[in-house]
Fold this protein.
Amino acid sequence: MRYEQMDDQQLVTAYIQGKEYCFEVLLTRHKAKVYSYIYQMVKDTVISEDIFQDTFIKVIRTLKGGKYTEEGKFLPWVMRIAHNLIIDHFRKAKKMPMYDSPNEDFDIFKLIKIPDTNAEDRMMKEQSYKNINRLIEKLPKEQKEVLYMRHFADMSFNEIAEQTNVSINTALGRMRYALINLRKLIEKHQLQLVD
């Protein structure tokens, strides 16, 4: 059987056994998806390339070190590594304070560009963002995470399911409950939102 015809698990096993070319096949097979995901999150070519390289360095070290345990789930495992490195990058850059820390203020709307409008409209929109952000903070962690990944990182539900290691139905359910709970909070606090 040619290496290109092998599935991911067969290639991983062969690579671990010393067939170096197998890793090249894996890299060629998955590099576009992994790089696209990284770029979609960081929106910077140089940083994306660095994180992409770091991802595959970590993959190689894990495989060579005999610590790979994700049989049959190679791509989701690689995507989790990339996701964690992206989070590390944002933490270091302080562009995205993590919302799981109660001591830090996370403003989800700092990630959104507000179009140039007059000062009054801009102030009203910023106040709406602050109000919604305060309400998002009241959501359970899993709901905040899926809301962020879907609406602000523009990830598909398949990607969210892979990154959070849950089924697609669970990811969809979390989003549904996040929106229901957010709507209830908006009504409870009688907020007027600006378009």
User: Anything to note?
Assistant: The longest helix spans residues 21-42. The chain has eight helices and no strands. Residues 95-108, 110-116 have pLDDT under 50 and may be disordered. The radius of gyration is 20 Å.
